[in-house]
Amino acid sequence: MTAEQVRFLAFHASHLVTQWRWLFQESQLRAFDDVGRSVTIARTCLDDLIERQFMRRGSGCADVAITGAGRAWLEQERVAA
After folding, report:
1. Is the Cβ–Cβ distance between 43 and 50 less than 8 Å?
2. Position 9 pLDDT exceeds 70
3. Which residues contact 17 (CB under 8 A, 6 or more apart)?
4. What is the pLDDT at residue 68?
């Protein structure tokens, strides 16, 4: 797991994410929380998290959500956001 993936998972686990935005022709996804903080992840890293079932795609074109497996992994690794 890359540091970028850990940050993205931890952000989704501990913040109310309200918006996602694709950047650079959908090569990166940026997530924003309810107070304007953000975190960015490369598409390849995001696809890997989805394949590992740590995140799942939402109903929109860019939204994603952390899964129970993703939360369990963070807890096991004791990653602080």
Report:
1. no
2. yes
3. 11, 31, 32, 33
4. 92
For residue 36, pLDDT over 80 is answered with yes
Which tokens hold the place of 35? 């107070």
Domain boundaries, the chain: 3-77
Residue 78 and residue 64: Cα distance in Å, rounded? 22
Q: 3-state class of 67 per DSSP?
A: coil
What are the angstrom distances between the C-alpha of 60 and each of 19, 42, 57?
Answer: 11, 18, 8
pLDDT in tens, 56-80: 987 766 678 889 999 999 888 875 5
Q: Whole-prediction pTM value?
A: 0.81
Distance CA 57, CA 64 (A): 4
Please compute, for residue 73, the number of CA atoms within 13 A of its CA located in the half-sphere on the CB side.
Answer: 17
